[in-house]
């Protein structure tokens, strides 16, 4: 039966190879038209050979997710209410304000406190009692990145493991090799005092001979390799799994083949196995997938705070060409005191050109674009966060990923457009918008070539918010801008 299943899925390992997470992370998907190599001097004076790409950087969900994890220093608190949909609406709804209320094993509680967690996060307050209930309950949970989902399901896995039984009992699927490792690190940290509990990674490159007796209790892996380990190599007996976690479901369904692999794995689990699914977003596609894979679930949602343009003053400067845009930028830069600014370009080529121009003019800037590895990107964002550079020039790659609260000025050196010059409203909002909660004022400048003016006007209409024209030659006018 198992081999038949496998035979029907001849492409699991292959599709994982093709998805090639590692290279995806280092080089987000791109159209390689017009690629050539140029030498660029980095801010620190070192020399880098960077490919010159005429095309946009494409947002890579898995890379962004990892980037967020690498640069995040603490919990992202949300003021939004948690919505709960119980499988059995008549059963009482529990929430906990302390970890003690969960009656965890002593060593686990010690691990949690050693990580510096004092009390459950908002989503954990509701999710943990459900996840730790007897009999085990299935759960679908959605809340934005950084709100404590990973810590929650790691806690559930660690609390259900029987350290004396030496076989895989908990199985967690993650979309990429690197994300699996990140989750594994949390298991290792939180389970620091659970000395007999061990983790193993079912990821590409971790070659285990067929029929090996795996004694580790928690397996974290990517769907293709896990499928291999279960059906082809017979390393994991799925009928003995007690907790099945599907993490980053939104990223998972974005990767070809992964939904099918996950469903195939889930089908072979025993009915009493607890099934948990987590996602940062809840579009229809994620929801349909979640419903297919998690039977009789409880559902917890923490709404993401909406972005708004209300507190942002928006201007545009009409320019003839790129040099003209640069001049306008310099005039603005020279006339108002800028704390920190992010400048967005549509292509890597433009971003690189602008970086070189600004450095030559003596500005302290750094360049963040998709050709850098995730670790390099994380380090650049961290330096910017720490105020080591005042200006960050970037492409779309980090438009959605980063939250640098001290930035009050955003410059669209190029307007975000989709193919066919249709404005990209969502990206515009993500670049400039703020959540209402922080309520901070902000300034946005759009450098617009004449032929892009209709697109800008569409953006103005779409958001029903005014974008004023600014004469970048008129220093008095610029100096009057107060923010
Ligand atoms: N109860 C808590 N108290 C303090 N810090 C916490 C708590 N829970 C989680 N954290 C910390 O908050 C950060 C975000 O948590 P976590 O990674 O679990 O969020 P997430 O929702 O899984 O994010 P992502 O969607 O990116 O995976 C981590 O640094 C984690 O150590």
TrEMBL record:
<feature type="domain" description="Helicase C-terminal">
    <location>
        <begin position="311"/>
        <end position="478"/>
    </location>
</feature>
<feature type="short sequence motif" description="Q motif">
    <location>
        <begin position="97"/>
        <end position="125"/>
    </location>
</feature>
<dbReference type="Pfam" id="PF00270">
    <property type="entry name" value="DEAD"/>
</dbReference>
<dbReference type="GO" id="GO:0007286">
    <property type="term" value="P:spermatid development"/>
</dbReference>
<dbReference type="GO" id="GO:0006406">
    <property type="term" value="P:mRNA export from nucleus"/>
</dbReference>
<dbReference type="InterPro" id="IPR011545">
    <property type="entry name" value="DEAD/DEAH_box_helicase_dom"/>
</dbReference>
<keyword id="KW-0539">Nucleus</keyword>
<dbReference type="GO" id="GO:0005634">
    <property type="term" value="C:nucleus"/>
</dbReference>
<keyword id="KW-0694">RNA-binding</keyword>
<dbReference type="GO" id="GO:0033391">
    <property type="term" value="C:chromatoid body"/>
</dbReference>
<keyword id="KW-0963">Cytoplasm</keyword>
<keyword id="KW-0378">Hydrolase</keyword>
<dbReference type="InterPro" id="IPR014014">
    <property type="entry name" value="RNA_helicase_DEAD_Q_motif"/>
</dbReference>
<dbReference type="InterPro" id="IPR014001">
    <property type="entry name" value="Helicase_ATP-bd"/>
</dbReference>
<dbReference type="GO" id="GO:0005524">
    <property type="term" value="F:ATP binding"/>
</dbReference>
<dbReference type="InterPro" id="IPR001650">
    <property type="entry name" value="Helicase_C-like"/>
</dbReference>
<keyword id="KW-0067">ATP-binding</keyword>
<dbReference type="InterPro" id="IPR027417">
    <property type="entry name" value="P-loop_NTPase"/>
</dbReference>
<dbReference type="GO" id="GO:0003723">
    <property type="term" value="F:RNA binding"/>
</dbReference>
<dbReference type="GO" id="GO:0016787">
    <property type="term" value="F:hydrolase activity"/>
</dbReference>
<dbReference type="Pfam" id="PF00271">
    <property type="entry name" value="Helicase_C"/>
</dbReference>
<feature type="domain" description="Helicase ATP-binding">
    <location>
        <begin position="130"/>
        <end position="300"/>
    </location>
</feature>
<protein>
    <recommendedName>
        <fullName>RNA helicase</fullName>
        <ecNumber>3.6.4.13</ecNumber>
    </recommendedName>
</protein>
<dbReference type="GO" id="GO:0003724">
    <property type="term" value="F:RNA helicase activity"/>
</dbReference>
<dbReference type="GO" id="GO:0006417">
    <property type="term" value="P:regulation of translation"/>
</dbReference>
<keyword id="KW-0347">Helicase</keyword>
<keyword id="KW-0547">Nucleotide-binding</keyword>
<feature type="domain" description="DEAD-box RNA helicase Q">
    <location>
        <begin position="97"/>
        <end position="125"/>
    </location>
</feature>
